[in-house]
Amino acid sequence: MLLRRKEGCPVEKKRQFESDRSESKSLSLLYQQSLKHRDRGDISQALSCLEEGLLTAFGRDYSKASERGILAESWIEYGKLLRQNNQHAKAIYAFEQAIAFAGHELDALTEWGDLLHEQGYSDEIIAERMNRKLEHSQNRSEILVEILCRLGAFQTAFTYLKADPTLNNERMLQLHTECLIRSGLLDQAINYASNAIDAGQLRPAFTDPLAMDTLLCRWILGEEDYSAAQNRQLLSESLKRAVNLGLHELANNIAGEDIYLQNELTLRLYYEGYTELAKARLRRHSPVISLNYSEPLHKDLAYIQAEIEYDEGAYDTAAQIFESLIDKDPLTATYRFAAASCYLKKSYQEMEERLSLNSRDLLGIQKAQHYMETIIQSLYIVERSRWHTVWTPAQLRNKCLPPSVRLS
């Protein structure tokens, strides 16, 4: 005779509870849920999911590499969301937790160092603290130099490169040469790069950073003549690299009177974070809105002009340019996302003005606040399309540079 298991058996209930708990408390599941909430613009719910997951993970032994990877990524994502929410102390703590996981130090420390720089810490102090946090890491010095260059702290990185002659792999050689150029030590940069390049090995400037940087130095020192270069692709790539290295005078000389290269120079300045220089160049020419978009790079110029207008709060002007681009190329989704962001920003601005005028209408205030919250979430969703140029920490430092360098 078969015995039926009684409903509500304590042992079975416990197993079921533990199974449900295991599923509901899975860090991987909560991490994925957090990303979904983030993409919908619900930052508070995204933070709640990560907090629940990280609390569940506390004290557990994550021995598998995949499990440790999810834990590290959760801490980094948690830190990013906290930073976005202006909870900087908590964000710093979150990034510090991720540093302990091998393979994630670069991303975690880049976020950590960038946040400290934003709070006013000097590059030297950031490097000292970073060095201590990496004391148990393999390739400690290489990681430190790489992160400092990511942050745009090239002078500080240079001091560590000079102090450690064992940093001589391909990547460190490239960064050492770059730091020498940024310090104005062009002769040393040529000698260093030349010694690094294997004798007799063909290293085309198109694809090899050391060869390109050596060529730029020779052009500046007059050892070779850039005007003799007939290859337009070489001129274009060297112009981009010159802007990247901050060699603006050389970049302007390479562009010369060539309209295409002059336009490319304006674009490259903007993409490298020299937004004030790019804006000054745009305003010395005809309004971009009237340009013939069939000409090379004119749509790109119009786009960055619209981004500049958007960042300055001129949402109507920015929307007008984006709409003109949509008319010219209706299948490009980026233009539509950009225009939508302008209209959302304008609506938010109008709601703020309405709130300031109706400070006694409590019901009106509640409705306006609800609409504003909805607009913020919608904006975040649109921004996830990455329609706007995103600058690296190193490039963001260039935004502080005034347009003092005259580039015609």
Automatic annotation (TrEMBL):
Region described as Disordered: 1-20
Signal peptide range: none
The keyword Cytoplasm is assigned to this record: no
Keyword field contains Metal-binding: no
Protein name per its UniProtKB record: Tetratricopeptide repeat protein
UniProt keyword terms in alphabetical order: TPR repeat
SUPFAM superfamilies noted in UniProt: TPR-like
Residue ranges of TPR repeats: 72-105
